[in-house]
Every structure is written in structure tokens, then in C-alpha cells.
Amino acid sequence: MIKCHLSTLMGLNKLKIADVARETGLNRSTITALYQETAKRIELDAINELCKLLNCTVSDLIEYIPDEQ
After folding, report:
1. Which end of the chain has fewer surrounding CB within 10 Å, N or C?
2. Is residue 46 left, alpha or beta, with left meaning phi > 0 and alpha meaning psi from -120 to 50?
3. What's the number of CA atoms in the CB half-sphere (13 Å) around residue 21?
4. CB of 61 within 8 A of CB of 4?
5. Tens of pLDDT along 17-53?
6. Interatomic CA distance for residues 55 and 52, integer angstroms
7. Is 33 exposed, middle or buried (0-12, 13-18, 19+ CB in 10 A)?
8. How far apart are CA 43 and CA 12, in angstroms?
9. Residues 43-66, buried b or exposed e (16+ Cβ, 10 A)?
10. Tell me, what's the pLDDT at 2?
């Protein structure tokens, strides 16, 4: 399973989806899907913009959690 920590990072930085969209130029629907962890895919450019804005690494933003057997 892939876990996205965007909502946590946004909370720590007191950012709203509109703030992230404005600062990164990403579509609100992309940010919302990541925030709600419903995204099926994400572009590398989007990861790059989010990491720049949030001053974090990819591993801070996205985490791999092995599925239970």
C-alpha cells in the first residue's frame, strides 16, 4: 500500500488545498486526490512541486507499507 502524507504535511504548515494549488500551479483535483488518498497515479512534476513547497523529501510525502499476507 502507498500512503500519502500530504494532509499531515499541509496541516503542519497550516496550508489549505487552495494555498497549495496557488503556490504549486497544480490542479486542485490532483491535490484533493492526494490529500484524500484516492489518487491512482501522480506525475513526477507534481511530487517535485509538492516537495519544494513543503520543504520535504519524497519519502516524507509518500510511504510504502507492505500489504499484510
Report:
1. C
2. alpha
3. 12
4. yes
5. 999 999 999 999 999 999 999 999 999 999 999 999 9
6. 5
7. middle
8. 24
9. eeebeebbbebbebeeeebbeeee
10. 92
The pTM score is 0.91
Assigned C-alpha cell, 17: 488545498
Tell me, letter by letter, the H, E, C secondary structure of the chain: CEEECHHHHHHHCCCCHHHHHHHHCCCHHHHHHHHCCCCCCCCHHHHHHHHHHHCCCHHHHEEECCCCC
